[in-house]
Amino acid sequence: MSEEVSWANRTIRECLAESFAGEWGTEPLPGNARVLRATDIDDDGHLIGSGALRRLSLNKLNSRRLKDGDILLEGSGGGPDKPVGRVAFFDAAQHQDPAVCSNFFKTLRPNQSVIEPKFLWRMLMWLYRQPIILTLQQQTTGIINLKFEEYLNANIKIPTNLGEQRSIAKILDTLDTSIREAEKIIDKLKTLKQGLLHDLLTRGVGANSELRPPQSEAPQLYKESRLGWIPKEWQVVEVGTVLLRIDAGWSPSCPEEVPSAGEWGVLKLSAITSNRYIPSEAKKLPSDLKPIPVLEVHVGDVLLARANGVADFVARTVLIEQTPARLMLSDKTLRLIPDQSRLLASHLVRAMSFEKTRQQIAGMLNGSSGQKNISQRQICKLLICLPSITEQGTGNVKVDEINQRLSAEALSLSKLIELKGGLMNDLLSGRVRVPSRLRVTTL
Question: What is the CATH number of domain 162-225+389-443?
Fold first, then answer.
């Protein structure tokens, strides 16, 4: 049979040896099985949790126990932006204890004489992202259910050659591995960055541009201060003594509409409370109101949230590195203008996020339980460590280096994810074929 005609339409039902509902079981007194739930799978079809320890009767455990290559199908759950119908692949080697899926799931057991289990899993994951999945949703009592029988009757197109199925699965597995490795590298870099930021605020950088040894290893390099042990060259200062001024914002009544390019807007509090600047979190200024140009934010500005309903979000501080024009401060945000002969904006942001600064902030907050505030006077009274301006600059270089590595790895990851998405569409639709000479016989 030629490669052009070696794909065939099958219903999902025709690709299965059997399917059955899951079990929740009873309290684990003692437990004899792990019950896998919605929280144990991610949106890419991988099992990321070990399940809840539960107890099942031996009859139910034997009849519903998951086997290698089984596919978990979410039959109930979902949400407004997440249709029900996610799937996950069960790899028995990764689960030591007996496992079943919960009563909110169905177990699909592939017929391995017809279909490679990992290929079917990939195909069902791809199907989940197609518009057809929205036609298979049914909501009754606040929970979304999958129209299971209709789902089983849905048609999918598969290669009739098992070797081609395995090859497609292998290609996508390889990409998954590369994506996971890239994610691990990014996680490690983020951990390194957090460690570096802490070190820059506790031991800093010596004359050789390297981090000083910690106080426990080189006590002669440190002195006691109101903030604990700090390098001898540092000072402890009140924030107000190294600021030129603080600018307050304005909050006119604005529609919940993001300003277009060139339009004036007012930044929402959510533009800065995540510890990064998000300029899209802004409201369009009504046409009948005149903007206040002096409140426009610019690259290099340091913005601080002076109020929030969540105490931990108060005094969150960000440095603007990029921003559209014509966005203004709101009245719940402040702009801190440092005296750059003594304090760099980037060091100010680091110092405001430091644990000892956050402890001071927590002791200053006032306002009701629904809205916590910090005043300009209180901000000015905060104590921070102040290295020399040269040392602050060296710290910036070190942070920039790790940020550049993070950006490069994030770009590589995004390209891998984009490649995987494109290949899934091409390989699972049959638009791109795996040449027969490259097909694998086993996975």
Answer: 1.10.287.1120
